[in-house]
Every structure is written in structure tokens, then in C-alpha cells.
Write a structure and sequence with these properties.
single chain, 485 residues, TIM Barrel, eight-stranded parallel beta barrel, Diverse_substr_monoxygenases, Nitrilotriacetate monooxygenase component A/pristinamycin IIA synthase subunit A, Luciferase-like_sf, Luciferase-like_dom, oxidoreductase
Length: 485
């Protein structure tokens, strides 16, 4: 997927264009039941060990061995209480409960890896930009620039109540607030310190030249601060910026800020118009539309043969929690699925709560050959393994063919690959799928990713900082003028 690969293999006017290389992120969450609730009952699953550091260290070593691009960690700030109007089944089924902080294990994982990047989810709704800027600059330093941020806005009532607010922020206003939040961060990360602020001048007893650290004075609708950034520039300055959400407001935000976008759909044909729209919006803002990279959720169930993979799938189905899956989807969409008969045809009009994940709710307005009807019975089956994303069952050849189909039909650039059991699902990706993708020439070889930052792994060696066409570049120290901001 790296843009540097575009120049490879151009040996004449008649040569075929090189196939786009894809990147794969391992998709996990610091919780027992991520997208396949119930598998904690499976003796092959280690999900219940995520509160021990050994789980994360072992996983990082495995992903490093396989040349996985990044460990992408989801997060949430409250439980799912839409199903039956109660949190009880969320807790009982371990449907993303309990959830620990994803930032804590990163230092340990970085210490045992050299190339694996880390992308964590954090919300713009709950903490001042200065605190997040300090923590993320620290993580970018400690990982040697192998750090990314999945930007989300928060919508759960339970999460807002936990911090003392009764009502979530309205959907579109959340993105307006997030836009200002990001611009404050750019001022801190990009505009506060000169590259040569650290002088290490022993003769003058000067480690840092204070005249080369600008004080940021921001007065806006949502945030006010006056400070110098307290952390010196990290290898990337601004972490690689992921974003999730393809609603109208989310797409506008993504076109401005996102370098990589996490998308989810049951069909590439359903997803393609959303991707085309965001690329179009990015182009209208002066960005190269192909510089916005899309990662689709994807859950493979791999075997050495198709038959072996289907045997694994049959075994995995013994442990699913269909109620756990319904709890998750009810929470994401605002539709209490406990209220409907198993074969009732659902649509977005059945949502009874605001502030939900509109891009997931929108799925209920669109069917496809893969999902001709949305009913509680269909949702229970799909959500209990892999969430609502696609599940591919088969040999490395079969699954690789499916990945290539998504790249072609949806115009995605990579995948957030989920697990059913961990680490087993990830072991199969590393040992079975990655070798097949490399055999096809569509996955980076180990030597291609050695020593790169998270952003360089996406854009090519040398692109540690924001691209010049990214809105954050307006805030770089040498060009930023606060009087004009």
C-alpha cells in the first residue's frame, strides 16, 4: 500500500501497472469480548488474560514476526445498555465489558518490537486537548514514531454520566467540537516548538532555547488555552491520524483531518460510494484523494484447506454468545433488538435513541446479495462472530482472493483484521495468510518496513510528518501565524 511502491516495476510503457500493496492491522480491544462475544468459553482463547501484561507482550512479538503493520486498539467509555434497557446483559455476556485502558501496555509492547506500529482509540469528548497532546507526544517518543491515534467522538449516555454530564453532545456538534480540538492539537504539536529549539549548549548552560518555543493562545467556541507544549517534538510530531465514521459530518471531518479511515460494511459494493464521497471531499479541500487510506474491518477464519477452515468455523460456533452480539448491535444502533420477533425486517426507522453510530445504523437501510434482509435472527448470527463486518472462511488462497476483491470493488487500501479467538486467529494470519499475500506480491516484505514510523509505513520512507496538503501543515512552526489563524 505504500505510495513508494507505485514507482516499482515501471519498466516500460507496455508493462502492467503494479498491484497495490495492502497493509493489515491486527484489530483488538482491551476487553474480554471484542467482536466475537462468548469465545472466552473456548479453551483455545486467551481473551480473559488481557488484564495481564504477558498477553500484550506475546501478541506484539507475534505480530512483529508476521510483519503486521499495526496493532489497532478499539476503546469505549461506557457499557451498552440499549438491549432490554439494561446494562446487565452487557456485563453478563462480557460484551466489551470490562474494558481497561489501551495506552498502558504500549510501552511494554514497543520494548519488544522494532517495526510494529500501534494505533489506539481515544475520544475528543472527555479531556482537554493539552492532556491528550502530552500523552500522545510521549507515546510517539517512546515508540520511536510508531504511534497512531484513532479519533472518535463519544455518544454513550453512560459515558457522559460517568464524567458528570447528563446529556451527550448532539451528533453533528460533536464533530464541530472535534474539528476545533484537532486544530488546537496541531498548534501544540506542529506550531509550538522549532525543530532546533533543543540546543544542548553546555557553555551557556542552555539545554533549550526558550525563544524557539511559541506560546499557543487559543480562544474558540469549545476550548481556550494559553501554553507552550510541554513535550519537545516527537518523531512524527502529529501521530498518524485514523478516524472512524462515515456519516455526513464524519465524512466532512475525515476529509479535513484523517490520513487513514476505519470503515465497516457487510459488502464492498455498499462501502464503495462512501469511500468515493470522502475521496471527493478531500480533493475539494486540496488534498490528494489517494492519500486518504481506507482500512476495512475483516474477520478471517483460516485453515490450510477450505475444508479445515469450515471445520474451525463449526467449532467456533459452539461458543458464540448470540445475546452478546445483540447487545453490541443494539448499543451501536440505538435499536433495542430484544423488542422484535426474530424474523422482523429492521431498518433505521426503528432506532429510538439519538447520538448513535450513524454509519452502522445506516447499514440497516441497505441490503445486498450478502445480506438480503436485516432481522434480529440475521444480526444475532452475524454479530456473534466478527461483529457486523465480513467474515471470510477458507484457505489462504480463498481468503486472499476475498481481500483482493474488496480492494478492487470497494477501493480500500488495507484491513483491520479481527480475531475470533486470540491469539489463534492472529497466528493463522501470520503463518498462513501473510505468506500467501507476499507470494502474490501485494504485501510488504519485512525489509520494506524496517525502521519506519507509522506514517512512513503508509506514505513511504521519509514522510515522517504530515503531508504538505494536510490541513495540519498550516500550523507548522515556520508557517503558522496565530494572528491569522
Amino acid at each position: 500500500m505504500t505510495e513508494a511502491t507505485a514507482a516499482n516495476g515501471a519498466n516500460g510503457a507496455n508493462s502492467a501497472p503494479p498491484r497495490k500493496k495492502i497493509l493489515i492491522n491486527a484489530f483488538d480491544m482491551s476487553t474480554v469480548g471484542h467482536l466475537s462475544p462468548g469465545q472466552w468459553k473456548n479453551p483455545k482463547d486467551r481473551s480473559a488474560e488481557k488484564r495481564k501484561l504477558d498477553y500484550w507482550v506475546d501478541l506484539a512479538k507475534l505480530l512483529e514476526r508476521g510483519g503486521i503493520n499495526a496493532l489497532f486498539l478499539a476503546d469505549t467509555y461506557g457499557g451498552y445498555d440499549t438491549y432490554e434497557g439494561s446494562l446487565d446483559n452487557c456485563i453478563r455476556r462480557a460484551a466489551q465489558w470490562p474494558v481497561t485502558d489501551p495506552t498502558i501496555p504500549i510501552s511494554a509492547m514497543a520494548a519488544v518490537t522494532k517495526n510494529l506500529a500501534f494505533a489506539i482509540t481515544a475520544s475528543t469528548s472527555f479531556e482537554p486537548p493539552f492532556l491528550l497532546a502530552k500523552r500522545f507526544s510521549t507515546l510517539d517518543h517512546i515508540t520511536g514514531g510508531r504511534f497512531g491515534w484513532n479519533i472518535v467522538t463519544s455518544w454513550k449516555k453512560a459515558a457522559f454520566k460517568a464524567i458528570g454530564l447528563d446529556t451527550p453532545i448532539e451528533h453533528d456538534e460533536r464533530y464541530a467540537q472535534a474539528d476545533e480540538y484537532l486544530r488546537v492539537l496541531y498548534k501544540l504539536w506542529e506550531g509550538s516548538w522549532a525543530n532546533d529549539a533543543i540546543t544542548e549548549n553546555k557553555e551557556e548552560d542552555e539545554y533549550i532555547d526558550p525563544s524557539k518555543i511559541r506560546s499557543i493562545k487559543h480562544t474558540g467556541k469549545y476550548f481556550n488555552l494559553e501554553t507552550r507544549h510541554i513535550v519537545d517534538p516527537s518523531p512524527q510530531r502529529t501521530p498518524l491520524l485514523f478516524q472512524a465514521g462515515t456519516s455526513s459530518a464524519g465524512s466532512e471531518f475525515a476529509a479535513n483531518h484523517a490520513e487513514a479511515i476505519f470503515v465497516s460494511s457487510h459488502s464492498p459494493l455498499v462501502l464503495r460510494p462512501k469511500i468515493d464521497n470522502i475521496r471527493k471531499l478531500a480533493a475539494e479541500k486540496g488534498r490528494d484523494p489517494q492519500s486518504v487510506k481506507f482500512f476495512a474491518t475483516f474477520t478471517p477464519i483460516l485453515g490450510r484447506t477450505d475444508e479445515e477452515a469450515h471445520e474451525k468455523y463449526a467449532e467456533l460456533k459452539k461458543y458464540v454468545s448470540t445475546i452478546g452480539g445483540l447487545v453490541l448491535v443494539s448499543g451501536w444502533t440505538g435499536i433495542d433488538l430484544s423488542k422484535y420477533p426474530p424474523d422482523y425486517d429492521l431498518s433505521a426507522k426503528d432506532a429510538t435513541e439519538d447520538n448513535r453510530v450513524r454509519s452502522l445504523l445506516d447499514q440497516f437501510t441497505v441490503t445486498s446479495p450478502d445480506v438480503p434482509r436485516w432481522t434480529p435472527r440475521v444480526i444475532a448470527e452475524k454479530a456473534s462472530i466478527g461483529g457486523l463486518g465480513p467474515v471470510a472462511i477458507g484457505s489462504p488462497t480463498t481468503v486472499a482472493d476475498e481481500l483482493e476483491r474488496w480492494v478492487k470493488e470497494a477501493d480500500v487500501d488495507g484491513f483491520n483484521v479481527g480475531y475470533v479467538t486470540t491469539p489463534g486467529s492472529f497466528e493463522d494470519v501470520v503463518d498462513l495468510l501473510i505468506p500467501e499475500l507476499r507470494r502474490r506480491g501485494i504485501y510488504p516484505e519485512q525489509e520494506e518496513i524496517e525502521g519506519l514510523t507509522a506514517r512512513e509505513k503508509v506514505y513511504g520512507k521519509g514522510q515522517k510528518g504530515l503531508r504538505s496538503d494536510h490541513t495540519g501543515s498550516r500550523y507548522k512552526y515556520d508557517v503558522y501565524d496565530e494572528n491569522l489563524a
